[in-house]
Design goal:
235 residues; alpha+beta; Arc Repressor Mutant, subunit A; three-stranded antiparallel sheet; 34% helix; SleB_dom1; Cell_wall_hydrolase_SleB; hydrolase activity; signal
Length: 235
């Protein structure tokens, strides 16, 4: 599936229940296994490049009272960080494992509004089966585009813009298996992204493509990061 070809314009019972949902993705199998573990004392650090560095772990209390370690930290309220002179501003590392507590906490809640639903739809069709950090990155590209002044100003407008997302046909979305684990995860990712509970990419990243293709426009942009099966760019 081509994507953005153009620079224009979980307890054990709970885990088993998740896996019982139709169309469970490889990511579902992994996170369900994690949910069956009473306590996660630590998670592997990541060696991120360009836009992310390993972050200090913080404790997160889940609704089930299971403790976990989240390998990401909130963005400073002031929006400012102290860094050596000449250093490139970075954000805390976000990993698939580190995002699991947030995904678990946001899989249920109020129904998504139309705009958030469009973000979740893009995540579902573009990145289901991807690690959670890769799904979050796709959601953020949609949001970044809407805020950039270069694309439609609404999330739905961005997703439905002609020739941008290959799953969109005539401005219409294909049928979603709303009973699937993938859709539950996509909705959670949309909630996380919209509330800015975690960040995977800088605000100026507006383009990406699958790693098995090499579109010509990629040579005119600056590669930022490869997350999951997608490569992300800024101008």
């Amino acid at each position: 599936m081509t994507r953005f070809f153009g620079a224009g314009g979980a307890s054990v019972i709970a885990a088993a229940c998740i896996l019982a949902i139709g169309s469970a993705s490889p990511a579902a199998a992994q996170v369900a296994t994690m949910a069956a573990t009473p306590t996660i004392s630590s998670l592997p650090a990541t060696q991120a490049t360009t836009i992310a560095t390993p972050a200090t772990s913080v404790s997160v209390t889940l609704p089930s009272a299971r403790a976990a370690i989240l390998s990401t930290t909130p963005r400073p309220v002031s929006g400012a960080t102290t860094a050596p002179a000449g250093a490139v501003a970075v954000r805390p590392a976000v990993t698939h494992a580190g995002l699991w507590p947030l995904v678990w906490a946001n899989m249920t809640g109020a129904a998504l509004d139309e705009e958030a639903n469009c973000v979740a739809t893009a995540v579902y069709f573009e990145a289901r089966g991807e690690p959670f950090d890769g799904q979050l990155a796709v959601a953020e590209v949609v949001m970044n585009r809407a805020a950039s002044g270069k694309y439609p100003t609404s999330y739905c407008g961005v997703v439905k813009q002609p020739w941008q997302f290959s799953f969109v046909r005539g401005g219409q979305f294909p049928r979603i298996n709303t009973q699937s684990a993938s859709w539950s995860y996509a909705q959670a990712i949309a909630r996380i992204a919209k509330q800015r509970l975690a960040d995977a990419l800088p605000d100026d990243v507006l383009w990406y493509h699958a790693d098995y293709v090499a579109p010509g426009w990629g040579r005119r942009l600056s590669k930022v990061e490869k997350i999951g099966a997608h490569i992300f760019y800024r101008a």
